[in-house]
Amino acid sequence: MPNVPAANLFADYSLGTAYDEMFDSAKHPRAHYRPLFERLSKLSPDEFARRKAMTDLSMRQDGVGFTVYRAEEGIERVWPMDPVPRIIPADEWSVIERGLAQRLTAINLFLKDLYQDQKILADRVIDPALIYGGGFFRREFVGADVPKGIYVHVCGTDLIRDTDGNYLVLEDNARTPSGVSYMLHNRQVLKRVFPQIFDGYDVRSNDDYPAHLLDVLRYIAPPGRPDPTVVLLSPGMYNSAYFEHSYLAQRMGIELVEGRDLVIDQNRVWMRTTRGLQAVDVIYRRIDDDFLDPLAFRPDSLLGVPGLVNVYRAGNVALANGIGTGIADDKGIYPFIPAVIKYYLGQDAILPNVETFRPMVPSHLSHILANLDKFVVKTVNESGGYGMLIGPASTAAQREEFAAKVRAHPRDFIAQPTISLSTHPTFVDGKALEGRHLDLRPFVLCGEKITVVPGGLTRVALPRGSLVVNSSQGGGSKDTWVLA
Amino acid sequence: MLSRVADCLFWMSRYLERAESVARLLNATFHRDLDLAGTDAGDDNRAWLSNLAILQQTVPDGVAAPHAIASWLTFDLTNPGSIIGCVNRARNNARGIRGTVGPEVWRAVNALYWQLRDADFEARARSSPFDYYQAVETGCHLFQGVCDATLPHDEGWQFIALGRSLERADKTLRLLAVKWTELNGLTDDSLKALEWGGVLKSANAFEAYQRAAGRVDPDKVIEFLLLDTNFPRAVRFSLEEASRALSAIDGFTDGRSNGRAERQLGRLISELKYTEPGHLVTAAFSDRLHGLLQQCLAVGRTIHDQYMLTT
Fold this sequence. Notes:
The complex is a heterodimer of chains A (484) and B (311).
Chain A: H1 34-41, H2 45-61, E1 65-70, E2 73-78, E3 81-88, H3 90-115, H4 119-122, H5 128-132, E4 154-161, E5 167-173, H6 180-193, H7 209-219, E6 230-233, H8 242-252, E7 255-257, E8 262-265, E9 268-273, E10 276-280, E11 282-285, H9 289-292, H10 308-313, E12 318-320, H11 326-329, H12 337-345, H13 362-370, E13 375-379, E14 388-390, H14 396-408, E15 413-417, E16 423-428, E17 432-441, E18 443-446, E19 450-452, E20 457-461, E21 475-482
Parallel strand pairs in A: 3-21, 6-7, 6-11, 11-12
Antiparallel strand pairs in A: 1-2, 4-5, 4-18, 8-9, 9-10, 13-14, 13-15, 16-17, 17-20, 18-19, 20-21
Chain B: H1 3-35, H2 40-43, H3 46-54, H4 66-74, H5 83-96, H6 103-117, H7 119-127, H8 130-150, H9 155-183, H10 189-202, H11 206-213, H12 218-227, H13 235-252, H14 260-273, H15 285-308
Helix pairs in contact in B: 1-5, 1-8, 1-9, 1-10, 3-9, 5-6, 6-8, 9-10, 9-13, 9-15, 13-14, 14-15
């Protein structure tokens, strides 16, 4: 390591077994991190702490974060942003970009096939029982047409890096992925509080994401609506992602509506305005399938719009994402995505999956049960870091519990070797930089063409050694730079 | 514009205006108490009970001393009518329109909320409340300024103006109704001047009144706060502003409303407009004020029915 003054942010930086984004194994900064490393080396921990405090204040004043409600008062948990950016060089990004476009293309072909001809099932690439047994397959939509044949318009795919630095797909989020507002907002905040660290870098802008998203939404409007009315449907301000809903609606210049603002009449969707009812053509919905329409799905849902699904089926309103896309990001289907890519595109997956074992396969089951202390076991229909067993960090009792559950409900679980996500210098305890594990969620849009906005949401696990980056589990985030 | 959004804009503006009114009222009352310290009038809690009447608040059991009433009306988040309660409600409404209006408006409301919720700031305010009331006033002015300077002056902006002006008319009418009943029996001239001066300060009208009318005289104070056509918190001025906002909204909404609220408001304004100067304060003055207040409330209900209950 080059000579550095005593009170240095990197003074106690140590490398673990994981791949470190900034340093190679000899603890030299990688080429694309060198200017950043040199700049940070000249900063005192106090100065850095001041910038971090500015970041926190800015996040709080902008009201960026999650809301937990208690009686009268909203308890806001600001989602902490670490001011040290994560940097992705252009050559790495071009692989990621191609890999993500390939993956979403295949996923959309897959969904179209599943809801139309089911050739992939007839060819036994995937056992139909896995599809029909999946919690998110909407068999009532088999045979229904969707606008322009696109099911997933917005996909957030989680990438991690193994110890050799290879990017792997950990999971797809093909229902209502969130986090893109943090990607956009983190950049704005970092520019405000730390303009100097952009010196010497040509960082690609991610700011046109909302414009691209609006293009996609307008593209899928029902025919004959040259100037469609597009709205964003949110569960409302008590939803944890409400910041994102309002942010995107504002940036796209469209109305943010709640279920109670919409009404169905004459097989069309209308919103209640001060001028009376106004027709709605496209809904970017941020409500899960289950809550979308109490007449079609959960009858107890107060968030949705009674009759919406009927209008959708009639082709009088477009929904993004479409209904029933959850089968594509079902963790029980995830192991088949490389085969899905091969089947529809005749290509090998550019971004590989994490090696995954399925308890439904007898040889896998015995392997999983014998190695529970080394595996991560995931419930297929859970997200947000819930319903997981992290083998190396588990107790014998927890392993017992999961072993019983896996035996009883093999379709509901998958197991993967514990991957030590890559680490990145992160400011902790207000005094020093230490390595913390992180992942990357880029956002992929599919309309007339596929667009991958350069960047993504980098989530970082703040507790030392933690591999769980979810915001609900003590995660933070970083600005993500893709270099030109 | 979505009816729900119109509702949020209207109430965001109203609640912030209300927070500012409460702050000014309490600030004026603290000043009054200090001016009268050591006298009989300075030692009772008469002015504080009036404040409760003006704000239509009922204190919980055990809250009777001036400082306890002041705390209840200032810091108590469980009291929706307290300053922090109003700012909190304004903020919840602002949250409902974050997707509609620019980030500056939200930030203005949110930053005020967090400034007031700061534990150190609140602790200092408990011993010396003036900074707190000043911060509320400044924060509310900042909010109105941000709305004027950053939002298009379209339908939504008119709902903000409407909420603000109706709230001002309402608060000034209540202030006059309660204070007239409380003070109209006073005989001591200097006490009268001080108390009615306090009424003016509660409406931020002291300097404006002096330039217009000179010495503090109860009848003239009432006339000024009710009928002045230039002062922002005078009832007539506020209602005329509300009327302008309503006709602008009707323009934006293609006359869908049939102008019912506008007509109600027009009748109310006419009543003030054609009042004979010098003959305002009569034996039935209290009834008259309450009549005006009822009409004001009726306008608010009509606005709600016309624009916010779209089916």
